[in-house]
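quick q for whoever's on today - can somebody do inverse folding on this one?? i tried earlier but teh output was garbage lol. tokens:
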């Protein structure tokens, strides 16, 4: 694949990642508000609620790891492409 095609592919992947991250950040804002509301009523935290919070926390952690890995992958591809031209 030509350098121009690789750059276009990386640009497309970056835009997609950015769009996905924007959606994720909106979901995080919603969840933060929900967690804050739950925290204001600690007596209302039932075992199922606590379990749900644990599941959501795990999901968030996995999402963050996934974004970090994808960013690292794109960075490595970009650096390799620039080294080939340097």
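ok took a stab at it. sequence:
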């Amino acid at each position: 694949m030509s350098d121009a095609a690789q750059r276009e592919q990386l640009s497309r992947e970056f835009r997609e990642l950015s769009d996905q991250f924007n959606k994720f950040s909106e979901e995080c804002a919603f969840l933060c508000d929900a967690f804050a509301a739950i925290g204001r009523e600690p007596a209302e935290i039932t075992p199922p609620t606590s379990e749900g919070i644990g599941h959501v926390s795990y999901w968030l952690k996995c999402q963050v790891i996934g974004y970090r890995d994808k960013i690292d992958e794109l960075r490595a591809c970009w650096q390799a492409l620039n080294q080939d031209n340097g």
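fwiw The mean pLDDT is 93. also Residues 3-85 form one domain. so keep that in mind when u check it
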